[in-house]
Design goal:
Blueprint (H helix, E strand, L loop, with lengths): L4 H5 L4 E5 L2 E5 L1 E15 L1 H9 L13 E13 L4 E10 L13 H8 L4 E9 L2 H10 L4 E3 L1 E7 L2 E7 L5 E8 L6 H21 L3 E6 L10 E8 L2 E6 L5 E4 L10 E9 L2 E4 L3 E2 L2
Parallel strand pairs: 6-7, 6-11
Antiparallel strand pairs: 1-2, 3-4, 3-15, 3-16, 4-5, 5-6, 8-9, 9-10, 10-14, 11-12, 12-16, 12-17, 13-15
């Protein structure tokens, strides 16, 4: 697994000391599953959330802002197995025109607009080692959460709670058994020729990630991430699914999921961040 092309191109080439422990860098994920919920949030709330970083959200033509929630079960990583919950907003270094309102608007922004970046705004992990690494080494505002992720009767079920036991996010979604050709065609048609060509030509999925300023990083940073997987399936987020955000800060975003992408056998690299500008 660790000899695959992604890790040959971006190997573990350094060490950092976090809380007295020597750990390798960059951040590697060798196996696991990611549930990527793409959708939109309240446009005014997104602008408020990103104003401290001086960044504009990417809106759709209805005035909603593009956003995502990530639920990850990483079974093999350079920091050991761990879970992750991430709430992300999408931005660009400068304001761009609103994208067409569509369930796959997030894919359109990522694949058809190379300037699109993802702001890791809310981040929780279920091991203190990963929390400290993300905060102290990668400059992310990471927090600890207890978590559960699993399948039952063909459904993904997940939940994250803070140290006081308060629910951060929880939900369920249909586990993917195969890719619907109709859904795939609708997604590809929406992202357009430019997006399809970029997808075909790229050996890895590349997403630039921006942090928020925090206790360990008093400036905005940008890191490049690269991933590939054994299998990906995309489905609309239907009425049988549920994603509830209970965190008092993030609940006001009013996140509305449009689709879920299930990414199995994920390989992922998060490179060391550098100054944003």
């Amino acid at each position: 697994m660790r000899k695959r092309a992604l890790f040959k191109r971006y190997p573990l080439d350094g060490q950092v000391t976090v809380a007295g422990e020597t750990l390798t860098t960059p951040y590697h994920i060798y196996n696991g599953t990611m549930l990527f919920f793409g959708g939109t949030v309240d446009g005014a709330a997104a602008s408020d959330f990103l104003s401290r970083e001086g960044l504009p959200p990417i809106h759709d033509e209805s005035g909603r802002a593009l956003a995502a929630v990530w639920v990850c079960d990483f079974t093999e990583a350079n920091l050991g197995p761990h879970h992750e919950l991430q709430i992300s907003l999408f931005t660009a270094p400068h304001p761009i025109a609103p994208v067409p309102t569509h369930p796959f608007a997030v894919f359109r922004a990522l694949l058809s607009h190379p300037e699109t970046q993802m702001v890791c705004h809310g981040l929780w992990n279920n091991t203190q080692r990963v929390v400290r690494y993300n905060a102290e080494h990668l400059g992310l505002a990471a927090c600890f959460a207890s978590s559960s992720i699993g399948q039952s009767d063909g459904q993904w079920q997940f939940g994250f709670a803070d140290e006081a036991g308060h629910m951060i996010a929880e939900g369920n979604a249909q586990a993917a058994s195969r890719q619907s050709p109709r859904v795939l065609w609708q997604m590809l048609r929406h992202i357009g020729l430019k997006g399809m060509l970029r997808l075909i030509r790229s050996p890895f999925v590349h997403v630039p990630v921006v942090n928020t300023r925090s206790l360990f990083s008093d400036r905005t940073l940008l890191a490049h991430t690269y991933s590939r997987s054994a299998r990906q399936t995309v489905q609309y987020f239907g009425p049988e699914g549920r994603l509830e955000i209970g965190h008092p800060v993030y609940a006001r975003l009013d996140f509305k999921p449009d689709f879920m992408q299930q990414v199995d056998g994920v390989n992922f690299v998060y490179l060391r961040p550098a100054a944003y500008r």
